[in-house]
Fold this protein.
Amino acid sequence: MIKISSKNLPIAHDTSSFFLPWMVMLMVFFATITTSFSISINSMLYNLEKSISGSLTVQVIPKPNMSMAKLKEEIDITVDFLNEYKGIEKARELTRGQLKDLLKPWFGDNEILDNIPMPAMIDVTLDGKTPLDIDKLKEELSLKSPLASIDVHYLWLSKLISFSKSIKFLSLLIMSMVAFSTAITVIYAASSSLDVHKEAIWLLHLIGAKDNYIAKHFSIRIAILSFLGALVGTLMAFCMIWIVGSLIKNINGGILNHSSLGLKDYLMIIIVPFSAVILSTLTSYVTVWQRLKRML
């Protein structure tokens, strides 16, 4: 009875030993980056929706040459109306300093914020108990204060959600292409290795080796090479993720700061290289086994 040993099949040195790990490394790198990007987008939308749920914003845009006293009167009328409206817990005017803080992630801390005109902003918190008819609120608010307009967060958030769905589809497409390319690469590597070691395989058959034994031996070798490539590709991808995350934190990138990755997200990303190794192993086993049936 022949035992499985690396000495029985002299296949440790051929072109696939160099070619396969590099290809798997690149495939895993791109797949890991794609997965982390998709998860980051979902995380950003979830955190945004969580932070702005139960709130809306009201702008009071002054007319040309309108005095500050008249504008302040319009703001007070709007705030009082909103605070008395059923379904609204609290309404408060944002100071110019607070508005500047909101714009700093995009403009930075420079003098341009002191010179640009800013509309009066009123932050509105909903009580979450009484359903609020936004259209009715807009109509009543326009009668009370024609200069006021409501910015409903879910309108622009819905556009981001649509964008997220497109990103998910694109990610799935890229992952499918990576999986297909990995399988083709493994098939080519396994077939090439079979051709190189054809004589040794004939001798093994003569002394009683079965097809599944040879196929298993090849798949173990492919699994080791794939694991080495996947390991390097994953480390490179994690380095890239860390660098991008550090840049986002340093530039204080607005809504990008909501796109954080947690422990569960990293565990999901780790599935990518293991999936690549499993795919390579199974593909190589089936490929070798099918080729042996035709060869012998």
Notes: The longest strand covers residues 120-126. The longest helix spans residues 153-196.
